[in-house]
Design brief:
Length: about 120
């Protein structure tokens, strides 16, 4: 296990190549305590309203824009915006006409506790 800081990506280069939708980058180094992704939604695309996981999530808008709807309020998503999504909060994300690209980080989810039936 390396405890040395290191560069694991280049957000500017990743954002410049947003030809696909969804998670266009994710941290994969192990061991780690955080999960991080860069998500791209094309113009007008959306992540339907859902209840977030039992983890706090922080997003940082990198490019494009749109809005995040939660509990009757709408937050503008523009480059530079930092949005905290408290654990369990209801949210929907809608990309604007230029699409939306954002960085998302949260504590790593524990592995599923699947066990064989007894």
């Amino acid at each position: 296990m390396s405890t040395q800081p290191r560069q694991i990506g280049d957000a500017a280069a990743i954002v410049a190549n947003t030809d696909t939708a969804g998670a266009i980058w994710r941290v994969t180094d192990e061991p780690r305590q955080l999960d991080a992704n860069i998500i791209h939604l094309p113009a007008g695309d959306r992540i339907a309203s859902h209840q977030g996981p039992d983890l706090d999530v922080l997003i940082h808008v990198l490019a494009g824009g749109g809005h995040l709807d939660s509990g009757g309020q709408s937050l503008e998503l523009a480059p530079g915006a930092l949005i905290w999504l408290p654990r369990g909060s209801q949210r929907a994300v809608v990309a604007g006409p230029a699409g939306l690209t954002y960085f998302s980080v949260h504590p790593k989810r524990p592995p599923l506790g699947i066990t064989a039936p007894s």
